[in-house]
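Subject: Predicted fold for Adenylate kinase, 198 residues

User T.R. writes:
Posting the sequence so we have a shared reference for the thread.
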Amino acid sequence: MRLILVGPPGAGKGTQAAHLVEKYSIPQLSTGDMLRAAVAAETPIGLQAKAVMDAGGLVSDEIVVGIIRDRIAEDDARNGFILDGFPRTIAQAEALDGMLDQGNLKLDAVIELRVDQTKLVDRIIKRAEDAKAAGQPVRKDDDPEVFKDRLEAYNRDTAVVVPYYEKTGLLTVVDGMQSIEEVTAAIDSVLQGLDEKV
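User M.O. replies:
I've generated the structure tokens; pasting them so everyone works from the same file.
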């Protein structure tokens, strides 16, 4: 099962990915985590990424794609994976297609968690308040101003991959404003449908 989860920050991708990791025994591949791991392991591509980041630059598509290529070649990703935070651009989506083609692999589905973005900001404010009330640290990302910036960046940069995957027929939209359990059930139903088609 090779999946991409798409949706703005706070849409619940992390929560749903955790369920899918458990259900299908496949890894969730978060670009940020992979970048940090490659840098820490001092792989050739990790050293390239470190040089760019140390200079204050943004890691190029080429480096990000290289890190993904290395990661999906690892044993635990042989039966599939969940991509979270990648691809972020059309160029990355096209590079991913090319990379999968080379390995005679294909994506099974792209699931977009579609949410009402104004309500999403309220959800994040509530999540920050709940964390404070429970005496837990508030995630840096849950600061409403930081969150609004991340949302803007998503709409400007990443949302463009949705029409790209819509054209390929791989995209399924799930209402991310439902309860966590309802979203999980909707995703399970989509993936079950794929299993039945095989």
